[in-house]
Fold:
Amino acid sequence: MELACIGLNYHTAPVELREKVAVSKTDLGARSRQLLDVPGIKESLVLSTCNRTEYYMAADHAQRAIEEMYGVFSESSEGVLIPEQHLYTQSKIDTVRHLCRVCAGLDSMVLGETEIFGQVKEAYRQAQDLGVTSKGLNKLFQKAFSVGKKVRTMTKIQEGNISTGSVAVDLAQRIFGNLRDSQVLLLGAGEISRVTAQSLQSRGAKSIHVANRSFEKAVEMAKEFNGLALHFDAWEDVLLQTDVIISSTGAPHFVVTPEQIERVRKKRKYRPLFLIDLAVPRDIDPTCRDFDEVYLFDIDSLEAQAADNRASRQREIEKCEEIIEEEIAKARLVGV
Structure:
């Protein structure tokens, strides 16, 4: 049995391609089970976030499994062929090293960010619940969780603005100006929205509206920030007063369109509107940026800001890499 991984991420593919192969959070387990239909694959797990989609496998032969998976990626991409140059592969010990780096936040757009750790755990839970992992992948992921925790505990990789939400707010403040007294609309009530709301509130945001398809979750988050919950189909009612929209839903289609903005532009007196799209697939139609007063940034637009963080933490990266190599050397894993 050999470990293998194939995937694409923000390093190798733009958001236009990543959204084609993205798997919704609720479908991770089912997608993982489908991989067992591929000849030679005995265990499987799918990880999909805004920055990456990766398939982990324990197979009879790693390289043969990877070759089979090139076709599987294309089948899941809405008919769009994913060129091989946008994909990366790992096998045996390199699979272990890669997953440890992912769990430690070293392979993230925002170096050291914390969301990825929970996302990997959720993907693992779903795969475990369906019985599609066994000795090989169980040991791999348990080791990666242990290494990720050790890296975060023994280094300063998490210091500063490390979440995607915090970096998004930094970008908004840099371009939009002082966020004090600004009115903010959050579309989606997941963890990334909560972290973003915390950062917005710390910068003096006047009010935070939360719209979510589960109204109960919107109420829960709005209460935490003394904001106002909205039914998802009612968020346009506050667009007239909104200065910043940060969207992170699981919708398979655009939820913010040029037509919605056009309806209120004149009443807003063409006041600047800042849009940050943290979702993959994207929530906001990219043609919204065609309006002179609209500033739209998607997940890839955060890379330059994240690069600043990376430069200041280079020494910490070296410490993290040393810990990972030491832990891999001590591990006794199947399939490496």
